[in-house]
Amino acid sequence: MRHVFTVRIGPIGFRVGSDWRAPIDALRELYRYYPSPNLPDFTVRLEATHWWRRWLRPSIRIAGDYMLPEAAPLPLAQGLLAAEMAMNLQLALGGRRYLLLHAACVERDGQALLLTGESGAGKSTLATLLAARGWRFMSDEFALIDPETGLVHPFPRLISLKNAAIAAAIAARPDAKLGPLLTGTPKGDIRHMVPDALAVGAMDEPAAPAMLLYPRHGFAAETRGVLPSESFVRLTQASTNYVALGQAGFDALTRLVRTTPAHAIDYPDGAAAIAQVEAVWRTL
Amino acid sequence: MADALILARALADPQSLALDTDWIGLVTTARAEQLLGTLAYRLDGLPLPEDVALLLADARAAAENGRRAALWEAEMARRALAPLGCAVVLLKGTAFVAAGLLAGRGRSIGDLDILVPRGSLDAVEAALLAAGWEWVKPDPYDDAYYRRWMHELPPLIHRDRDRMIDVHHTILPLTARITPDAAALLAQAQPLGTGLAVLSPDDMLVHAAAHLFADGDLAGGLRNLWDIHCLIDDHGSEGARVRAAEHGLSREVARALRLTHRLFATPVDPAYRTLARGDALYLRRLLARDDWGRPIRPATRLAFYVRSHWLRMPPAMLARHLWAKWRWG
């Protein structure tokens, strides 16, 4: 491919090829402090939907080792989003070394806090707010559970902030480096934030999972305990490769829910959520 | 331009790989051709760069899970069809792993393919529907087309396990000019002792060659050719040539022997060690994949796509089919 960029994010290496220079330049700039992998685990391609769409109303088809047939093409202005989506897709569909949970993850004192919930539950925002208050940011998208050790490995890719979360995250980290504001994407406005130096510097350091949280935005503040059985079902839904891993996935997940206390948190706004998280964390 | 030759060489002669191999290109090509698991088993035990070894170990673990899932799916079909008392013969990937053949090592397996007697089709269909399989193609034209002209029922998918089953009653479409002897395939099938059977080794090779060269556009062809290489490694190719003549598939089997020999140095009879007319074009198509996993050589690909339709249907019927597809489709 014409333009190539490779990057290692935590234990996962990517090779991104593009028909255009712009998305590669954006990745190079925003991932400037990340290392290069020896052997990328996955290949991603940002290619023109037709040969002439490289120049005329440029349109990006997301492709790579693993593809979703229904993935809609994106305009070149959203090239950074296309690259990020494509990298996540490779890991989600092809990752087998770790049990993948769709979760944000932060760490304190060597102990990891996993936040999982559907898109829009506030995972990225909460992880960013917590990181601004002294937690180590590990991931806003995937928690990588090693089936052998049970440890969570960091995957601190660019933080994908959406709509109202953009301003909230910038307020919490006013000096953070940001990507361009992408308007009119399939998920509204999106802006990428570079994780802080601590997150990038410690991206090879896993942590033991200590707590599972199920946040839900837009409700009166309430915290309740969640049984391992409920956690198990929720996390099978939140995992992209639980079935594909077979017994290793089952063993990793049962171990996680048996050894990790879990709570559901309903919250009205970010400040309340932080207070609730800190309160429930003190019960450890 | 780089093509999939790097992958064919790595499969044929893993020892020949240098440490400075373009590993990412090799892995990407293998993934795109659904041969990464196979490659991982071929390279197992060789001195490899650490990251390569790690990635290939993942691929072997994934293939092992795939193997278990495929065998489980076969067992589910066996349970659903056991009351009918008809023969149920596993085909392709599931057959290779169920029979413990070399071709099954690391092989990626998607759908479950089975062969049943044509007279049992209705009962098989009813039993599968009762056991939770559902239609994939709701379109009445497609459905009618399958039932009237294809060598298989319209594909069914299991509603809980999300796995597809293809129920064959012979190995080539009824519209094809070649009509293999389906009764002989069933008569020679070898029971596995589990209530399921597989084709005889010779018929397996003939089927693989038919599938590759007499049906379809050679998508996934490299994997299918590797199957043939492995089948020859296990049982030789003498018997298959005899059977091929009985099924009307001598040309296809001969081409399979020539191309496996060329690409994978498969030991075949000396008569099949030089390429014949047209073989080069097949090689061009089989290797049409670059080191980014992209399909290349669009003209060659299109030619084989057109050819696949030509093989499947007489011209008048093809015209009717294309008309119907265009009109409703």
TrEMBL record, chain A:
Coiled coil: none annotated. Keywords: Kinase, Transferase. One of its GO terms (molecular function) is kinase activity. The keyword Transferase applies. The keyword DNA repair does not apply. InterPro entries: HprK-rel_A (IPR027600), P-loop_NTPase (IPR027417), Sigma_54_int_dom_ATP-bd_1 (IPR025662). This is Serine kinase.
From TrEMBL, chain B:
It comes from the Bacteria. InterPro entries: NTP_transf_5. This is Nucleotidyltransferase family protein. It comes from Sphingomonas taxi. The lineage of its organism: Bacteria, Pseudomonadati, Pseudomonadota, Alphaproteobacteria, Sphingomonadales.
